[in-house]
Prior knowledge:
Blueprint: E1 2-7, H1 19-28, E2 33-37, H2 47-60, E3 63-67, H3 78-98, E4 100-105, H4 117-138, H5 152-155, E5 160-164, H6 175-184, E6 188-193, H7 194-200, H8 208-221, E7 226-231, E8 233-237, E9 240-245, H9 255-264, E10 269-274, H10 280-314, H11 318-352
Parallel strand pairs: 1-10, 2-3, 3-4, 4-5, 5-6, 6-7, 7-10
Antiparallel strand pairs: 8-9
Helix pairs in contact: 2-3, 3-4, 4-6, 8-9, 9-10, 10-11
Amino acid sequence: MSLKLGPAGVPLSCKGRTIVEGMDDITVLGLDAMEVQTVRTIQPQHFDQYWQAGILSWKSEFEMNMHGPYYAELLGNKRERNRTLSKMETSLQAGKIVNARHLTFHVGPYGEFEPGSAANEQVANIMSGVVERVEEVWGESENEEDYAAFPWLTEEKPSLVGIETSGRQELWGTVEEVLEVCNHVEGTVPVLNMGHIHARGFGRLRTSEDYAELFDQARETYGGSTFYCHFSGVEHRMGNTMHYTQIKKSDLKFEPFAEFLAEEGDWMDITIISDSPLLEHDAMYMRQHYDKARQRLLEIRARDERREKLAAEQGIDPEELKKKEIEAAEARKAQQEGVVEAPKEAIKAPAAQSPSKKNSKMISFEDGKDEDDIF
């Protein structure tokens, strides 16, 4: 399985605030991905930073990603839709320069549509045009000389267009809607925002089985193995996201997700971005819990292999050997508890008895009266 983790933006602990300095800090922290936030606007002076970041990511295999504008109205009237597409065009150009693997976009409110096939078809048509525009912006391999400053344009595939799940009931972007559109539009990838899915599903993601159900649904509907995820703690109410929180303070926990990835995620190529208020701290927290889950799984597998080998040598069933091991472990535990309790009784016993002077050969310093003491 290919798993990449990183923060959404420049790390909070980074002394410098440029993208390249942020990439350096992320690498030092043991992370390997970053999402550039262009959620409102892109300033022309930032393009030099984007190019430097693109060169660095291309040479170091560091994964760069880009998030488009938060406010979108792709299902609105013609004016609203064109205004959103204009903002998305700027993100496409920036994504080309920064060597972004994923370009994430929101769809926005349902607008003139009702939830259903008509709205999904409209989104699919718009996203098809966005994918075509990405390929145009990326350029043709025949024009290699025109893109000497951007070697990834000729050696890498164009950016994938990510369609993100939404966290409010009035916005287009349920899991089913996103997966259906991605299934029909080649060049797109579902962006599974776990905080949004958890909130919109009224606390849907609580166990590793819940994550297994989500990705089984994605595999059946979408059919691909490439996923882009956002993860953060979330405060939610009545099926709507209120705001992000740090993971430890939310009812959305990462441990079940880590357990699922370790046990059943071998088929996935997945990138997880931390958009928690703690950014890189929670990204490292996720990395640590995934490594722990992976280590536990390896230990379990090694133990099972050893048990099967011993069972084959003894000519018994592995389950029978497992039962014997459990009984032996319980017996050892009971014996250890008995050994621990015994010294406590031995220590208390002498304290209950007063020492006898006749039987003791040691000098006594008790303050009793001595008949031979003339003083």
